[in-house]
Write a structure and sequence with these properties.
Largest sheet: 7 strands, mixed
Radius of gyration: 17 Å
Strand content: 15-25%
Distance between the termini: 30 Å
Strand order of the largest sheet: 2-3-1-4-5-6-7
Helix content: 25-40%
Length: 245
């Protein structure tokens, strides 16, 4: 399934896996690594929240970029399949919602266990993209965005490397043009944010074509509110993974 032997699972999961009844694997968005979930708890009412570290960033900075969403999905499945030994879900915000979808497609194609639920935040459906302000930004504008979003001052060398990673992620997003929706044997929760200026909640209705059961949720906040692990979002994880629908 992968372009080579899959890397050890610990490379992909920086946090130890809690022995909880259910798990949600959380994918970082463009330019970011697993540390973006630093303010998230380890679990939400018995559902482990498991940040996934992607190649080409943070402690995996020396590894080559994943290339395409399709290749990344195959690599994630190859690495994380042993951890999908109980009911699990997948969370993605903005660009990583598309990666989450591709992971589900890869699992379906290989006849492997399917996620109980996809949690998709602030992203239009794949057939309606690519979409987002980053797609038209220059490297200088992307660099400025990173500075604005960073909680700490980055030196120029680190900023150059992170900008390079963000540019590669943006190019992967721009190149992602799936032929048609794949109907998945799972439930989907779309999560919009009331004051999201990047992706308005009403732009997410296209996800209805990707599953028989799609739950639409709009939570209070802006595009990056999710980073603070608001209680309303944690409730969606716990409720969604407990639902037997």
């Amino acid at each position: 399934m992968t372009s080579g032997s899959p890397l050890p699972m610990r490379r992909w999961l920086p946090r130890p896996l809690p022995d909880t009844p259910t798990r949600v694997f959380c994918l970082p968005y463009s330019g970011a690594g697993a540390s973006m979930f630093a303010r998230w708890p380890d679990a939400a009412d018995g559902t482990a929240l498991c940040p996934v570290q992607l190649p080409g960033r943070e402690n995996r900075l020396r590894e080559p970029h994943f290339g395409t969403y399709e290749q990344l999905a195959r690599d994630v499945v190859g690495a994380l399949l042993p951890a999908m030994d109980r009911p699990f879900g997948l969370f993605g915000h903005c660009s990583s919602a598309l990666i989450v979808y591709e992971i589900a497609v890869a699992l379906r194609r290989e006849g492997l266990p399917m996620p109980r639920r996809l949690f998709l935040s602030s992203q239009v459906a794949p057939h309606e993209g690519p979409y987002g302000s980053y797609l038209t930004m220059t490297d200088e504008q992307l660099r400025a965005e990173l500075v604005a979003l960073s909680d700490s001052e980055l030196d120029d060398t680190v900023l150059d490397l992170v900008t390079e990673t963000l540019r590669a992620d943006v190019e992967a997003n721009k190149a992602y043009r799936p032929a048609a929706p794949v109907l998945l044997d799972t439930s989907i929760t779309t999560i919009g944010w009331t004051d999201d200026q990047e992706v308005a909640p009403e732009l997410m209705s296209g996800w209805d074509q990707y599953a028989e059961k799609v739950h639409r949720v709009v939570l209070p906040g802006v595009h990056h509110t999710f980073l603070g692990a608001p209680a309303a979002l944690l409730h969606q994880f716990a409720e969604g993974m407990a639902a037997d629908d």
